[in-house]
Design brief:
Elements lengths: L1 H13 L7 H10 L14 E3 L30 E3 L8 H49 L9 H24 L13 H26 L6 H28 L6 E7 L5 E6 L4 H15 L9 H12 L13 H14 L1 H44 L10 H22 L8 H13 L4 H9 L18 E4 L12 E5 L4 E8 L28
Antiparallel strand pairs: 1-2, 3-4, 3-7, 5-6, 6-7
Length: 525
């Protein structure tokens, strides 16, 4: 009875929600204070054990007693809360420590590569200009006059350098999407090729022009033009190697998530293993449903319950080892497998029934709430402009009427850790702003979406480790298997080559489409 009263008081507070959850948070902190806070010595901080998002919508303990399966599944997560509204779990602590260890080396490697590329690019663009200006500075009086053709070459060099600058910016100066463990082989080869090319041009220029002080200025300008032309061809080669070569599909990869077995198929071209891993991860965040470890606890708790119900008696005395007990428990569990599948069947059927029931209640509550906001809009149009509600205020007004049904549905489907009250209010105000229907609002909660749909704080996969028997810089081959590991699960990638397809042609003469109607005497015709 007290739990019900607590629940009713909590949801009655949502009707007076003013956009800030400080009051609810302060009440929750006072309710969890220890007896030591009476003297004022420990009134600032408290430690609670709860599900990761410490929100009033999804953190009410009174409604949790309505469902037996929700009693223990969230007790393994420890959230440390203080005067702020942020929470941190054990997984977050391990992830932060790992990120701190790897951040220093990754940043040094990234900035070193960018520095080398920037210095080399600056050298490439300044070299043709230096070829033209050095004779004018060192032996200008001895140079032959530059005619019309020579002056036209100045315009050619200027526009070619501009085109090369734009192409280089579009191809190379892009924000990196990820940090790869090894260097990109083709990019490194292009950098080495450009360095050797520019070095050879400088070597020839120093020996044949600077030492001899060549007076043929038109020939010097043509030499600079040939350098710019060669750089444009190298840029074309970079486009072919870095962009066009990988477009043609050559391999099909199967990606399987190790925890729940969800899989997807993708087609890839000629890529290295590390670049194929990046493509797989980019598609994972938009194609795979978000990883929910709470859905995996049901089977583990069911197996633990069956094993806990077994008793082993040692009739041979204390000298018997533990391996005999283990074999006895496994054998007893095997004998009980005929009854366990019935329990699984009824558990799943009961869970589906509860989900359908909570879903129906949620749909009705949301439809009634959206009907109410439509009526509010019609009434507010007749009032003064100062009394009009913005989408945020409208969302706060209708949110309490659907909060209880949404809370129970998210608990039943084990999604409450991905949706905080603030994110729900933001989504509700977004739907109201864009005049979206209740069905559009519920789409995010009725069906688990991809990882990109949720906040980055709710992701269980940010830092990945590539495990492969082959070198990560080698290209994809038929039968190659590599694994992408993160803190909670892994993605197993199996590569298969697309088979060679032999397509033949068969010609059909249009005159051969002739038919005859055969009539029999027994028919009515």
């Amino acid at each position: 009875m007290s739990a019900a009263m607590d629940t009713e008081s909590t949801y009655s507070g949502y009707s007076h929600y003013s956009g800030h959850s400080k009051k609810a948070h302060r009440q929750g902190r006072d309710r969890h204070k220890s007896p030591r806070s009476k003297d004022g010595s420990r009134s600032e901080k408290s430690v609670t054990i709860q599900t990761p998002p410490a929100e009033p919508l999804l953190g009410n303990d009174a409604s949790r007693t309505e469902e037996g399966q929700d009693d223990n599944w969230g007790e393994t997560t420890t959230a440390i809360t203080g005067t702020s509204e942020h929470s941190i779990s054990q997984e977050d602590i391990a992830r932060i420590s790992k990120d701190l260890e790897d951040s220093v080396g990754l940043d040094c490697k990234r900035y070193l590569g960018l520095t080398v590329a920037a210095v080399l690019g600056l050298l490439v663009f300044l070299t043709p200009i230096a070829f033209i200006l050095l004779p004018q500075i060192l032996w200008r009086d001895d140079l032959e006059p530059c005619g019309t053709v020579c002056e036209g070459l100045f315009i050619s060099v200027a526009f070619k350098l501009l085109i090369l600058l734009i192409g280089t910016w579009a191809l190379f100066f892009r924000q990196p999407k990820a940090d790869i463990p090894r260097v990109f082989v083709f990019r490194a080869l292009l950098l080495v090729l450009i360095f050797l090319f520019v070095f050879s041009y400088w070597l020839f220029y120093g020996v044949r022009i600077l030492d001899t002080k060549d007076t043929n200025y038109q020939g010097i300008v043509q030499y600079a033009v040939s350098l710019v032309d060669a750089l444009l061809f190298i840029h074309y080669l970079a486009i072919v190697l870095l962009e066009l070569r990988q477009l043609q599909p050559m391999f099909t990869v199967k990606v399987v998530r190790s925890t729940d077995g969800e899989s997807r198929y993708y087609s890839l071209g000629h890529l290295s293993i590390q670049r194929a891993a990046l493509v797989v991860l980019e598609n994972y965040y938009k194609d795979f449903t978000v990883y929910n470890p709470a859905l995996l606890t049901a089977s583990k708790s069911r197996a633990a319950k069956h094993m806990a119900g077994l008793k082993v008696y040692n009739v041979d005395g204390p000298g018997n080892n533990a391996s005999g007990q283990s074999r006895a428990m496994i054998a007893a569990a095997a004998r009980r497998r005929d009854s366990s599948h019935n329990e699984l069947y009824y558990e799943e059927a009961d869970h589906e029934r509860r989900v359908k029931k909570r879903r129906a209640r949620l749909v009705v509550a949301v439809e009634e709430a959206f009907t109410h906001i439509k009526r509010l809009q019609a009434e507010e149009q007749q009032k003064a402009p100062g009394e009009m509600m913005d989408p945020r205020e409208a969302a706060q007004a209708i949110f309490p009427s659907m909060a209880r049904a949404l809370q129970k549905y998210l608990r039943t489907t084990r999604q409450q850790q991905y949706h905080s009250m603030e994110s729900i209010l933001q989504h509700l105000s977004f739907c109201i702003t864009n005049n979206m229907t209740p069905k559009a609002f519920l789409e995010r909660y009725l069906n688990p979406g991809p990882t990109l749909q949720y906040d980055k704080d709710r992701w269980f996969s940010k830092q990945w480790t590539l495990v492969s028997e082959e070198a990560v810089t080698s290209g994809l081959q038929d039968g190659v298997v590599f694994v992408l590991k993160c803190l909670d699960f892994s993605l197993v990638v199996n590569v298969k080559k697309i088979p060679f397809i032999k397509l033949s042609e068969e010609f059909i003469d249009p005159k051969s489409h002739k038919f005859v109607l055969r009539l029999q005497s027994e028919t009515s015709v």
